[in-house]
Every structure is written in structure tokens, then in C-alpha cells.
Amino acid sequence: MRNTTKIAAAVLATGALTLGLSACGADKSDTKAKASDPLVVAATPVPHAEILNYIKDHLAKKAGLNLEVKEFTDYVQPNNATEDGSVDANYFQTVPYLNDFNKKNGTHLASVAVVHLEPLGLYSKKFKKLDELKKGGTIALPNDADNESRALRFLASTGVIGLKKGSEATATPQDIAKNPKGLQFKEVEAAQTPRSLQDVDGAVINGNYAIGAGLKPAKDALALEQTKGNAYNNVLAVKKGNENDPRVKKLAKLLTSPEVKKFIEDKYKGSVLPSF
After folding, report:
1. An example Gene Ontology cellular component term from the record (predicted)?
2. CATH homologous superfamily of domain 121-224?
3. How far is residue 186's CA from residue 172's CA, in Å, rounded to a whole number?
4. What is the largest CA-CA distance in the chain?
């Protein structure tokens, strides 16, 4: 009976120790970041990382912000990294894409600052004008739902195709109602659309990937998305609950500063447009 009591006591002591260690771990994970801690931001290379690196090199120190930029070349990993805490924030996406990503992946991301617009464009290595597209030609589209529907709405705005009424918000190639040139559509990952230009007659390319591939949207696009009333502004995003992180607030302020506005206008010359 005495041995049983000793064993029970030992088990209780071990359990208490485990709970204590767990509590200590929880306290550590819940500790709020200090203002001096690095703010790690995920971004696609162009123009997002370029804009962030401009801030890092010219504005962050004076603002008391320790900024680290982590580059990604796709649209999935930055959100996953923000959700799991591998990074503190990200800057690469539009609000419609963010909302769609949350819905499909059960993530909890929120926009904290609207920064710029990258007009979507139709590009070709074979033609120089929109009306030169040949019948039966193939057009590459981004394959994620948000960018694909955006690309199709853009093409419809040019008159190249027409969409079924009411399908615009979630349009897919199956929603094309008018296709006078009998165009075919090839769905590829958004980051691969510039590379696909070698194999197709044209490609609808997101502005950041176009610039990253050496294209000049304001000059090279057969047609360019209009900025007026456009919902596809690019935003700084965090996991919900981190909107009031002082470091995030500092970055949001810098991203919408006169200095960054001038940097965007001077560097991208109309291919990227400040939205503030």
C-alpha cells in the first residue's frame, strides 16, 4: 500500500511538472514581440520585395523598425508562412485573393494597408496589337480562381471574349459566352505565365511577374487593365490578431509614405501605381 502511494505521488509530481513546463511554453509563445524585434515580411521579388528593401535601406532605421524581407516566388507559401508564424506579415496579394485563400484554406489573414496596383496585362511574343490575335490561338491564364476570373473579366473588357451574365465574380473558361476568334485557354500557375509566352499566342500576366520577367507593362502589353475603380490593389497582410503590432503599424505607415510613393512612380513609370 505504501509503494502504491509513492508511485501515485510520483505520477502526480511528474504531471505537475509537465503542466508547469507546458504553461511556461505557452507563456513564451504568447509573449508579444518587442518593438526592437525583427519584423519578417514575406514578399514576391518584384515589385514587393524591391519596395520593402527600399524602406529597409532608406526609411526603416529612422522609424525604429528592424525590417527583414523574405522572398517567395509563388502565391501560396507567403500566406501559409504568415498563418503559421514563420513570418510576421506578407506583401504580395490583393484583397480578393486573400479572401479566397482564407475561405479555401481555413487561414485567418487580414489586410492592414492598401499600397499599390499592378495592372493585369495581355502580352504576346508573336503579335504587337490586340487585333492581330489569330483565330484558334491559345491564351495562357493564371490557374488560381481569383486571378483567373480577374483575367477573364479583363479579356471581356477588351472585347476579345464575352462572359455569361452573372458569372463575372467567379468566371472560368466554361463561362465564356462569346468567343469570336475561337480562342483556346491554357491554365498555368501565375508565376509561370511569362515563361508560357514561348508556347502560346498570348498570356494574361500579373504585373509583378511581368516586371520580374523584364516586361514593361505600360509599353509591352497588348492591353492593360484599367486602374479606375479597380478592386485589385496590393496590400500588407498579417494574421488576424496582429493588426496592432507596433512594428506592423510602422511598416504600414512607411509603405504609404510620400517617399515610397515617389519611389514607385520613379522606378516603375506607370507599370506599378501607388494606391494611396
Report:
1. membrane
2. Periplasmic binding protein-like II (3.40.190.10)
3. 11
4. 94
Name which of 55, 58, 52 is nearest 70 in CA terms: 52
What letter represents residue 18's amino acid? T
Amino acid at 4: T
Kindly report, residue by residue over 39-75, the tens digit of the pLDDT.
Answer: 999 999 999 999 999 999 999 999 999 999 999 999 9
Dig out the grid coordinates for 145 from the structure: 480562381
Q: Which residues neighbour 113 within 8 Å (Cβ) at sequence distance 6 or greater?
A: 235, 236, 251, 252, 255, 256
Q: Where in the chain is the domain with CATH 3.40.190.10?
A: 39-118+231-274, 121-224
pLDDT given for residue 26 in this prediction: 36
Please give the grid coordinates belonging to residue 231. 478592386
pTM for the predicted model, two decimal places: 0.73
Amino acid 31: pLDDT: 54
